[in-house]
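Hi support team,

I submitted a single chain yesterday and got back a structure, but I'm not sure I'm reading the token output correctly. Could someone confirm the output below corresponds to the sequence I sent? I've pasted both exactly as they appear in my results page.

Thanks,
R.
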Amino acid sequence: MGIGKKLIFAASFSLFASAGAYAYAADHTVGSAEELTGLAARVNAGESFEGDTVTLTADIVLNKDVVDYDGTLRDGSYSSWTPIGTEDAPFKGSFNGGGHVITGIYINDPELSYQGLFGVVSGGDIYNITVKDSYISVKDHAGAVAGYAIDGAVISSCHNDCTAVRTENRSGGIVGWTDRSDVYNCSSNGYCSSSRCSGGIVGDVYSNGKIYNCYNAGAVEGSQLVGGISGGTTSADIQNCINVGEVSDGYLIAGGAGSRSIENCFALSNDTVNTGLTIGTSSSTAKTFSGYGAALDEPVEMNGVSYTRAVDALNAWVTADETEIMYSPWVQRDMYPYLRDGVVSAVRTSFGSETSMWSNSDLEEAYKAQLIPDVIAGEDLTQRISRAEFAAVAVRLYEVLTGAEASSAGADGFTDIAGTECEQYILKANALDIVLGVGSGKYAPEADITREELATMLCRTIKKYSFEDWSMDNDSEYYLDTSGVKVFEDDALISEWAKPSVYYMSKLGIITGVDKLHFAPRNTTSEQEAEGYASATREQALAMSLRIYRISDILK
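Hi R., thanks for writing in. Yes, this is the structure output for that exact sequence:
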């Protein structure tokens, strides 16, 4: 399935390859319980996925109705889960949960260690995933998302929804044990219990770790080193976290000694079961709040401003942070602050000032792949993309795929782009024959790009990447395989010059219709134009660019 002289990639390909009793996605996507099991088998056999991103494309149910809300296991027969990654064969890649939910993880064996959705993650990052209605009862080192995160691993925007984690040592709502690894933008509404090191977010932070911008509402129990956010904290920075969960025989924020700092953290007052906020910290600004509206028992000052509500102090920290990470904002719901929108995403400042929830996981991956051009980085990505900006997206995709900077040499030039922010991108796109203009020597840089124009420009980008000698002069020598593609009901509205590209992009899954029947290639009424009927947004364009990037190995 592809392009080439006379016939390129006409043979169909399968998105999923099989190996023995297991299957996993050849393009590193996972969309079923069988594929998730296959991923675990591959990693545990030594395929670390280092440098690769595995993307979850659907919610997955492994078991149903596993635990009650108090963390007790319900009567029933459940299929056991084998975690992804072991001590000897850890997961080293990136896992993008795509905002999806994995339900019904069941692990119940008193001899096991390093248990969770992931067993051991070394230097990789796990993000945008919720583990729900699951039960993990093992010897030690367990969390809903990961048992052990080590050597620079990052766990972000991960969530525990009614998952019970029980161990003898190191039990965490998100991660059991971290070593030189970070956890941020995570939340737990589950249950944790351990004889030693039990924490609502992390069971034990062993060395030089961070827990930033996290929230716990689950019950935490134990007999030694118990905390609402972290149990053991040998060497950790805990900042901008909040705990509203009940902590039995422990501390509201951190239960261990030796923490480097606990800053701007808050906890719901509950003197009947807790012995204090923190223990053994060299620097602490943890405070309690009580009552409706999360009013702080004592004001907190940040950057010279005094705050009396927890949610305001939390957001002041988010706003003031100057790292590359954009931490999720907080909102007030009923009595307590919550991370915005429940399942949140690890959004970087380079993404944009505004993004849609559906796009955040794609934007995270596009950011890592350096697909986001500077002209729209930091802008409102929910807005329509212009013809000029889309030229920048196409050129950036070409440069990433080829590993070389595009040249503007040989460009025809246009009379209406001089001095515009995207001028060089447009010239490069024209030199590559990706864009041709609208006639009369003009490009119309500020006009919204139509969906048929977008499909055509993307298709030309693929042609230029696949075949260096391709140009518009010899375009007739190339054939696009669109066999088997269902014709859209509004096919008559698609311009003849755009049809091959539209249906080829549709066959690859790069750009789909506005519904199952219609493509909406261009505006035919002024009302459609006003509504953006046939237009695309910046984040939609980036998602399409990313889809091409994901399958680039089969396009060359």
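A quick pointer for reading it: Confidence is low (pLDDT under 50) at residues 6-26, 342-350. Let us know if anything else looks off.

Best,
Support desk
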